[in-house]
UniProtKB/TrEMBL annotation:
Cofactor note: Binds 1 zinc ion per subunit.
Lyase found in the keyword field: no
Residues that bind Zn(2+): C16, C18, C36, C39
Keyword match Ribosomal protein: yes
Pfam families cross-referenced by the UniProt entry: Ribosomal_L31
GO cellular component terms, semicolon-separated: ribonucleoprotein complex; ribosome
GO molecular function: metal ion binding; rRNA binding; structural constituent of ribosome
Record's protein name: Large ribosomal subunit protein bL31
Organism the protein comes from: Sphaerochaeta pleomorpha (strain ATCC BAA-1885 / DSM 22778 / Grapes)
Gene that specifies this protein: rpmE
Family: Belongs to the bacterial ribosomal protein bL31 family. Type A subfamily.
Keywords, ordered alphabetically: Metal-binding, Ribonucleoprotein, Ribosomal protein, RNA-binding, rRNA-binding, Zinc
GO biological process, one term: translation
Length: 67
């Protein structure tokens, strides 16, 4: 690597709006994010599958998957 052309790769803190702090290595000093793995619905298991107006049933009828 050439000297003086690459950014410094240092330990930084990633702060989430929920209060979670993650330490990682990056070229940025500090990062602030709105959502992280500690508060994201997919990772916490609070995500809900919503069937709006019978879309799944319509799909199954259209492709003859329901017998």
């Amino acid at each position: 690597m050439k000297k003086g052309i690459h950014p410094r790769y240092e330990i930084a803190e990633v702060r989430c709006s929920c209060g979670n702090v993650i330490k990682t290595k990056t070229t940025s000093k500090n990062l602030e994010v709105e959502i992280c793995s500690a508060c994201h619905p997919f990772f916490t298991g609070t995500q809900k599958m919503v069937d709006t107006a019978g879309r799944i049933e319509r799909f199954k009828r259209r492709y003859s998957l329901e017998k």
